[in-house]
Amino acid sequence: MMGVLLYIDPGTGSMLFTILIGLIGAGVYAFRMLILKFRFFLSGGKKVADNGERIPFVIFSDNKRYWNVFEPVCREFDRRGVDVVYMTASPDDPALNSGYEHVKGEFIGEGNRAFARLNFLKADLVFSTTPGLDVYQWKRSRDVKYYVHIFHAASDVTLYRSFGIDYYDALLLSGQFQIDQIRSLEKLRELPEKELVVAGIPYMDEMKARLDNAEPVEKSGTTVLLAPTWGPEGILSKFGEKLIDELIKTGYQLIIRPHPQSFSSEKELIERLITKYPDSNSLQWNRDTDNFDVLRKSDIMISDFSGVVFDFTLVYDKPVIYTAAKIDTSVYDAWWLGTPTWTETVLPRLGKELNGDNLLNVGEIINECLADDIYSEGRESVRRECWAFPGESVSKVTDYLIDTMNKLKENSVTEDKEMTS
Q1: pTM given for the model
Q2: What is the pLDDT of residue 25?
């Protein structure tokens, strides 16, 4: 009985944590200002510096998998001799041992512990790909001047949960269509306009450069990659054995690469399928951390609404077969716009839809997608929409961040002069 009385559901726990952090933050800030005012009084009215350490530039990553987003930018900052503090919520993040002289990796704890550290951060600029700033546990610190967000996929920004990017100061985008979406949301919610900068997408530039420099892949025959996301709308949940059976009948090499989350959230499903369809000469289960080789050797991908669809078709220039997921948009920004998502509108240009009616003809669909030039033309048009400045994004992102930090410093100097004049 006592255990029941003391139980707090996760949503309530998150809310209580947020309230607690807010109260503590307000108390700490008020106490700090009281100390500064007291020192100001003792100094006879002269300006007194706050001796707390301020960090010029912070990158925050909530998961190690986003190192591919930030690593190109870190490398460029290191090349230019600009110091970076890389805060991560993953104890095994590659950033902690990057080897870059000017990149200092710091593990700040997992979950709420990480957000507690960020909520009292003192920094000029924070750069992140994590949504939800000032919505959930992660609150804007009063001692951070500017927050900049970069998206980790060249895709629809409205498929973030509602309000996920509302409270950033600036967003770095990969295409004009994202500007149109964000301005529409700001207008609907009567929000001040954020600084929006189309700068491209560094990790896709890096992937393309790696592909261009790679040795030709050794393979024989056609290889089909089944790469679903997880959840009830994922391909394995919807079609499972029925689809795998049909793919085996094609005689093509089949690689199945489930989403990493599937191995924990859908453990029973995955174990059942692996047992029923073990590795063989014609079928392989893939769990490589780096998906470069498996994407390179595959001729066509079958997926759903996983972001890897855009990596595969736009970088590797290959067709896809997709399922039209029935997504409940009520919790996403897309709901506010009341229009089809950008992703829904472009998928038909990249490949063909797979559904319960044509599932038994998947072999014919594969052959059609591999042969039809219309999908090659579609890929080129989608690239123009969502992949700005190919090959130039790292320089553009770094230039923007450095210019913004310099402006913040100049503004601070101006404010200091006004205070002392």
Answers
A1: 0.81
A2: 47
